[in-house]
Amino acid sequence: MNLVTRVVLVLAAVLAVAFGVFVVTAWAPDRPVDELRERWAPEPSRFLEIDGMSVHLRDEGLRDNAGNGSADSGPPIVLLHGTSDSLHTWNGWAEVLGRDRRVIRFDMPGFGLTGPFPHDDYRIERYVEFVLTVLDELDVDKAVLGGNSLGGRIAWEAAHAAPERVPALVLVASAGYPADSSMPIGFRMAQIPLFEPLMTRMLPRSMIRASVRDVYGDPDQVTPELVDRYYELTLREGNRAALVRRFAADDMEGDPERIRGLEQPALVLWGARDRLLPPEAAGRFHEDLPNSEMTLYEDLGHVPQEEAPTRTANRVRDFLSDKEL
Predict the structure, then answer these.
(1) Rounded CA gap, 268 and 282, in Å?
(2) Domain 78-90+107-322 listed as CATH 3.40.50.1820
(3) What is the pLDDT of residues 112-171, one digit of tens each?
């Protein structure tokens, strides 16, 4: 055996060992939802049976005898989270807005504790139908819709589909326009079919940490507890396969004509340090929405509601008050 062959064999052995170590440390099977509920669904969480799913939901704040917003506070606000997120991203907003308004939030299908759609249909139209069905189940005729990222896209698409039910919009780094972006590594891998067997069986915690840090304006704000939340809820059975299906839906860009046709008052909130959906998109929303206001936060990233909940929620309160909603 010559020297070159020996070197190749040694390198192959080292790589095989390294890969084996990676598989062992990154191996992460799905976790049953019952195993996750105790930590991530304490009161006031509850579960609502809709379309074969047990939807994780929190319904808080003030309301009148009919179950809507309190007599003086206007319609409820419904908060929709983004891709691979959960209702927990709105914890700070629920505390602030719930002082004088009914606040409803839930884990969207494919994410959080709700888990996947039964029929693997992750088109935007299906999400819009789901949101309106939740409102029907809660006997909510009208609601302000607020959404972050994917949730923002679903919010404005729902406003287009049922304008009589959505008196106003709050769009937080909303999806809808094409953008050159710095996509977290987990999202990039989910778009490559070759990686699906790995994506649904392995999940390095370091990858989740890097992905969360990538969407924060100040990555040093990302705590181990925050990484725990994203990591454990990603492991909810079916969520990783659902993420692959969502990216395969091939409807990542919205129709600008639909945006221009929205007449509802709209508040556009964005972080100037957003690397996933750069702030140029905020300007497009503000320009195309005929009745909009925009606030850009120089120090925040893609999840302003999570990074600075009190500051951003107070901006929403002011907006809704000014619009007498």
Answers:
(1) 7
(2) yes
(3) 999 999 988 999 999 999 999 999 999 999 999 999 999 999 999 999 999 999 999 999
Pair of tokens at residue 77: 């606000």
- Return the closest-CA partner of residue 109 out of 88, 93, 128, 91: 128
Q: What is the pTM of this model?
A: 0.86
Q: Write the Ramachandran bin of 128: left for phi over 0, alpha for psi from -120 to 50, otherwise beta.
A: alpha
Are the CB atoms for 286 and 294 separated by under 8 Å? yes
Rounded to an integer, what distance in angstroms lies between the CA atom of residue 303 and that of residue 89? 8
Sign of CA dihedral 201, 207, 209, 213: negative
Structure tokens at 103: 């606040």
pLDDT of residue 249: 79
Pairwise CA distance, residues 183 & 324, whole Å: 38
Q: Which two tokens stand for residue 42?
A: 């304490």
Residue with tokens 């994203």: 230
CA distance 244 to 195: 10
